[in-house]
Design brief:
- The protein is an alpha/beta fold and about 425 residues long.
- It folds into 2 domains: about 5-135 and about 390-405, 2-Layer Sandwich (Enolase-like, domain 1), CATH 3.30.390.10; about 140-375, Enolase-like C-terminal domain (TIM Barrel).
- Helices cover about 35% and strands about 15% of the residues.
- It has 14 helices and 16 strands.
- It has helices at about 55-70, 75-85, 110-130, 135-140, 180-190, 205-220, 235-245, 260-265, 285-290, 300-305, 305-320, 335-345, 390-400, 410-420; strands at about 5-20, 25, 25-30, 30-40, 45-55, 95-100, 105, 145-150, 150-155, 195-200, 225-230, 250-255, 275, 295-300, 325, 375.
- The strands form 5 sheets. The chain has a 7-stranded parallel β-sheet with strand order 9-10-11-12-13-14-15.
- Helix 2 packs antiparallel against helix 3 and helix 11 (about 305-320) runs parallel beside helix 12.
- It is globular, with a radius of gyration of 21 Å.
- It binds D-glucarate and magnesium ion.
- Magnesium ion binds near residues 276 and 327.
């Protein structure tokens, strides 16, 4: 039967999802965080799903793109880049500004466009897979593994959001010292079977974070450990931390800001350096690889522009003998499914991927994805292999509609000021 792959409708639904009070160097997560859910509908009535950042600037760009998608075919994936490139972006919103809360390096109009394209690309692939009866990984060339490994993403954390702030409760408790971090890690292993651990750092002075990683090493001997302060340290501090933890770290992630500083650190330690901040676009690869500034690049299908760009990045890393794995920011099951499909096709994926998913108690799917032994089984059902729960989507959208605008743009420093009115985003290097 011939399918009509023409796009007849595109639906964009901004939502707010519950997020626990996770600490990072800029502040703390808001009680609710924005995401954008994309639905691409074909003439045959097939609906493909995509997901990306939901802050206003993404939504403002996604809307005109969505309007122009109608009438195109879901197979025209390359055309998505051209289309997004033709839509004007208000540069004042993004130009050379450090990403607030997202901690993904410098924000540019180009990166913003790619983050929007990625959601449309995933939705088109989901629809195409359903039309052909093939899983997304098959459209990407086929899986080379049946399950994708993820690491436990540990955060310093308050027990709850500040009193009086509307928020969902979580049962993780506080984690503000080495014992709390180890306890959180234990719960991650009990609940999900993770065997490698990443601690989000840049929150407390480096000695305290070194102590937390040491405590993890003692509690989980031989397990891969990572520490990521999102560029909060000077070169000197980064080298000291690397020295202090050289026997237990799988890698140190973005200890300091910028390719030059990362290269300085890399020259002075044998601990591999990973990044989702200084190599975030194809244009940034040449300098970083020439300077040997990073040994592992953490891709993210959202800001790299989708699943096929992620494969291209992985191929470049393979060519230059640089490791590859995956970055995560607060996300739901559609993105986890997309990430799992593409990760399944990358032969040189030798590090467990990051995922915030265990922190997200809410989702828009009829069935949550699950971690078994720290792994997500690669779906073999047509498309992404996930289904939208329209009532949940509507519920989370109504929360977005009810918000007066304070939560629609992620701002971890503003969230911190609710508890600590004097808080200003720390200047870097912080230590
Ligand atoms: O969720 O606070 C967070 C993270 O710090 C996130 O914003 C980062 O983008 O997880 C990310 C990272 O690895 O840098
Ligand atoms: Mg990182």
């Amino acid at each position: 039967m011939t399918r009509d792959l023409t796009i007849t409708d595109v639906r964009l639904t901004p939502i707010l999802v519950a997020d626990p009070p996770l600490l990072n160097t800029q502040g703390v997560h808001q009680p609710y965080t924005p995401r954008l859910i994309v639905e691409v509908v074909t003439a045959d009535g097939i609906t493909g799903l995509g997901e990306t950042y939901g802050d206003t600037k993404y939504l403002e760009l996604a809307r005109p793109c969505a309007e122009q998608l109608t009438g195109r075919r879901i197979t025209d994936l390359n055309g998505l880049f051209t289309l997004a490139g033709q839509v004007a972006v208000d540069d004042s919103r993004v130009h050379d500004a450090l990403d607030v809360g997202g901690l993904r390096g410098v924000q540019t109009a180009g990166k913003l466009r790619l983050s929007v394209v990625s959601a449309f690309e995933v939705a088109c692939l989901d629809a195409l897979g359903q039309a052909l009866g093939l899983p997304v990984h098959a459209l990407l060339g086929g899986k080379v593994r049946d399950a994708v490994e993820y690491s436990a993403y540990l955060f310093y954390k308050w027990a709850g959001h500040p009193a009086g702030v509307p928020a969902e409760r979580d049962d993780w408790g506080a984690a503000l010292d080495p014992a709390g971090v180890v306890e959180q890690a234990r719960r991650f292993t009990e609940r999900y079977g993770f065997t490698s651990f990443k601690l989000k750092g840049g929150v407390f002075p480096p000695e305290e974070e070194i102590a937390a990683v040491r405590a993890l090493a003692e509690a989980f001997p031989g397990h891969p450990l990572r520490l990521d302060p999102n560029g909060a340290w000077s070169v000197e501090t980064s080298v000291q931390v690397a020295d202090a933890l050289r026997d237990v770290l799988e890698y140190l992630e973005d200890p300091t800001l910028g390719t030059r500083a990362m290269a300085d650190v890399a020259r002075r330690t044998r601990v591999p350096l990973a990044t989702n901040m200084c190599v975030t676009t194809f244009a940034e690869i040449k300098e970083a690889f020439t300077e040997d500034a990073v040994q592992v690049v953490l891709s993210d299908q959202h800001y790299w522009g989708g699943l096929r760009n992620t494969q291209q990045l992985a191929a470049i890393c393979r060519t230059f003998g640089v490791g590859v794995s995956m970055h995560s920011n607060t996300h739901l099951g559609i993105s986890l499914a997309a990430m799992t499909h593409v990760a399944a096709t990358v032969p040189n994926l030798h590090h467990a991927c990051d995922s915030h998913y265990p922190w997200q108690s809410e989702d828009v799917l009829t069935e949550r994805l699950t971690f078994d032994g720290g792994r997500v089984a690669v779906p073999d059902a047509p498309g992404l292999g996930v289904r939208l729960d329209r009532d949940r989507l509507e519920f989370l959208h109504r929360r977005w509609l009810a918000d007066d605008g304070t939560l629609r743009d992620r701002d971890d420093a503003a969230a911190m000021r609710v508890a600590h009115p004097d808080w200003v985003t720390p200047a870097v290097p912080r230590w």
